[in-house]
Predict the structure.
Amino acid sequence: MKTLKFGGTSVKDAEMMSRVTEIVKNSNEEQIVVVSAMGGATDFLLRAAEKAHLGNSEYKEDFKAFQIRHEEAIDQLFGSEKALALKDEVVQFLEELDNLFNGIFLTRDISAKTKDRIVSMGELLSSKIIAQNLIENNIDAVWLDSRELIRTDSTFGNARVDIEETYSNIKFKVKGHQVFVAPGFIARDAAGEASTLGRGGSDYSAALYAAALDAEVLEIWTDVSGMMTADPRK
């Protein structure tokens, strides 16, 4: 069993998502594939939420751009019939997101819990698209909802994981397929509310899956060439 984690840059568009598929196809081992949101999506969602919080209706344009970006990736990866089916599924997430933004705009109020629900959408959408692309490439893949498996406390924005329950959930669920695709970063508390593991939490999610399943290796795929002592973008 291998665990592979792909960051936002590695899943930023249809071309990069196709590369992920090729990497997964080149292994005959069972794999857990943990993915981040499309590059920049989390920051984008937080900016849109802040605009809604300030009563700036431009958040609607941001929301539309977020929707178009994911729909374009779907159109480029799939034939028309599959694209329509996946878009119907994606619409459910987008409708929830739209309602959250609208609620913030009307009340001028936003909580850490609401922010966690908003930013969870990036990972949910990217992982759904990648899982479907693996299936379309004849890979025995299935999508996992990390919110159903990773249990946390209610410290929204930087939740603490209940390791014992999380490991038990993962061991029970991960069986019967060659590849499992899971969104990183997101989880749920005991009350069923969406929570997140903090920025950079997708690496932590991948480590949880790897440890729970006693994976032989956890690979962190990134666009950074090796270990850096400072931010290579500066």
User: Anything to note?
Assistant: The chain has a mean pLDDT of 93. The helical segments are 14-25, 41-53, 59-77, 80-107, 112-136, 146-149, 163-173, 201-212. The longest helix spans residues 80-107. The beta strands are 2-6, 31-35, 141-143, 151-152, 179-183, 186-189, 194-196, 217-221.
